[in-house]
Amino acid sequence: MRIRRRHTAWLAILGVIVAAVALSGVAVPAVALALVALYAVALAASLIEVDSRRLRDTVQTSSLSRMRMSPQAREAAERARRRSGFTPAGLTLLDVGLISLHSSSEGMLMRRSRSVSLDDNGVRPYITLHVQPETADRNALVRFEILDSNGQMQFVHEMKCYLRDGEMNILADHHLPLADNQRLSSAGDWDLRAFVDGALIGVLSFTMSPSLEERRRQFARSQDEDFDRLREIETDDEPVSLEDLLRAKSRDQRR
């Protein structure tokens, strides 16, 4: 959008005429107000020049970026929009998720997943952005938050990123330790939140599975409860004599 200065002379003359008519009292107030409104429209149309080609390119680029969004990014962006009611201009969330780290006999394995286990060594959040040219070439503050199933904040990390035009992958510098982390005791549905310059850009839910040790404890606890329930049933049953058993068997045979 540019200002066209070549029309300022005649706009100034027209402004003087409209002001004289409005202030002289010759025209009724309704007519004077209409003249002022028409002059304002003419002023805006004459001075402001919209770059239609750039506007069209921006709309097309934004549409193509939305088509490239992953299902996780669409879900996360929609949840963020419903919560904040604001979408950062010039930024499109193409992907969002977690990279889990797991040590094995083959070394450290990294995988992208929406299901994480407390047996993993750690997990690092990431986002993929498409940056429009008018939003690029500047530093931005990216913030990651991870909340457990109880709504408790378990991970917060902020980092400075230099935004460049086009597609950008942003991976957190630090990870959330999982294995042997005594603070993490609640499995279930967790949330990952991503912010850019304080604006919520994505909210993604993921599954945190309990560790194998916790599963063994739950299984042993379930077996103990079943055994106790069976003992209660056996204790409540009244003793039956051999004569009663034989009598019941003969009745069944007659039937």
Textual characterization of the structure:
The chain is an alpha+beta fold and 255 residues long. It has six helices and twelve strands. A hairpin with a 5-residue loop joins strand 7 and strand 8 (153-163). Helix 1 runs antiparallel to helix 2.
Helix and strand layout, with pairings?
Layout: E1 2-3, H1 8-24, H2 29-47, E2 48-49, H3 52-67, H4 71-84, E3 91-104, E4 107-113, E5 115-117, E6 122-131, E7 138-147, E8 153-163, E9 166-171, E10 176-177, E11 188-196, E12 199-209, H5 212-236, H6 242-254
Parallel strand pairs: 5-12
Antiparallel strand pairs: 1-2, 3-4, 3-6, 6-9, 6-10, 7-8, 7-11, 11-12
Helix pairs in contact: 1-2
Quickly list its features.
255 residues; alpha+beta; five-stranded antiparallel sheet; five-stranded mixed sheet; 6 helices; 34% strand
Low-confidence sequence ranges = none
User: Strand portion, in percent?
Assistant: 25-35%
Major beta sheet, specifics?
5 strands, antiparallel
Approximate helicity band: 40-55%
Structural class: alpha+beta
Secondary structure: number of strands:
12
* Average pLDDT level: 78
Oligomeric state: single chain
Number of H/I helices: 6
Radius of gyration based on Cα positions:
35 Å
H and E string:
EHHEHHEEEEEEEEEEHH
Span between termini:
98 Å
The general outline is elongated
Summarize the structure.
The chain has helices at 8-24, 29-47, 52-67, 71-84, 212-236, 242-254; strands at residues 2-3, 48-49, 91-104, 107-113, 115-117, 122-131, 138-147, 153-163, 166-171, 176-177, 188-196, 199-209. The protein is of the alpha+beta class. The strands form 3 sheets. Strands 3, 4, 6, 9 and 10 form a 5-stranded antiparallel sheet that branches. It has a 5-stranded mixed sheet with strand order 5-12-11-7-8. A two-stranded antiparallel ribbon has the order 1-2.
